[in-house]
Amino acid sequence: MDPVRNPYAPGAGQRPPELAGRGRELDVFDIVLERIARGRPERSLMLTGLRGVGKTVLLNTLRSQAINRLWGSGKIEARPDQSLRRPVAAALHMAVRELAPRHRAPDRIDAFLGVLKAFAQRSVPTGRAGAAPKLRDRWQPGIDVPAASGRADSGDIEIDLVELFSDAAAVASDVGTGIAIFIDEMQDLGPEDVSALCAACHELSQIGAPLIVVGAGLPHLPAVLSAAKSYSERLFRYQRIDRLDRIAADQALCAPAEREEVEYEQKALDLLYEKSGGYPYFVQAYGKATWDHAPRSPITAADVRVAAPEAEAELAVGFFGSRFERATPAEREYMRAMATLSLVEGEAGGVVRDDMDAAVPTAEIARALGRKPASLSPARDALIKKGLIYSGERGTVAFTVPHFGRYLRTQPA
Q: What is the pTM of this model?
């Protein structure tokens, strides 16, 4: 098989050659865009799921849908060490620039840009009283008009974001379209920023303004939003992005191969699904390695078995290992206990199921380590902050990375 023609793409956020199994999500977003264009009420959208299920790819695809409908759009990636103010200003600047050529009143665009500039430049000093803002908070946006006064510049991010989004939506209304802001890794936003986003989306939904936020984050994102505003459960449309079913996984492998006049034997597809578990990133990783090792078409189960160790070695370094290295010894001990507890034993004591992606009670982790639950809280909280585990329900934790438990059990203590 010619490696140059290898169609598979196991990259972070890299769109696969065949976006299989996501038709429903694309159709739902098309309806959202059309309803808003017709002045119908609609909610902002939140995509949640484990790492490697394709949230970023889907987020980028939804943005393309918005652009194809002539919406203004901007995308940011949330970071735990950065305020929302600067990146959201840059995203809105990009969105409005896309709309500006179709706006009949340049003065209206300039007026909004003045408000945007005031919002971007407004920062509250941190640290000791009177300390200067950090360099990133003194960012100067590339906007030629003077900053406005008295609008979106109070310094309270919640008040300012509501006013900014309302003004941006008014610009979109002028040209008969909308604005969509896409936020990746949304669970990393600070509590004040999450609260401000919820308040802004709430205000926009009440007045039917054509601006929506499309967020993507780990499975505990709904809990993060709910902790900020109790009404967030009704404010957003939540879509859980999960692994592919068998039909979609086969399509992700076979469709791009057929375009290169290559086929798979059924047993090869059976084994690839068993190895990948249907997780899109793993499907691409095993597909790429198998293609490179297969001597000819059709690709066989024997080809998959030969290629699997290479795919697993690459995942061990790039997908699992890079995350494992970020953990301290205490945090690794905590995760190893989680991995051990995910093995479900039968009555005779043998392992009957490797439930590697299931939630594990924190009380059981403490018991397995012979520690009090309170003494393990620092390790647990640090792992959550690093994005290695999440707490979907009170008293339980789970890995954010599929098959991480299996990987940990192969590592020396």
A: 0.89
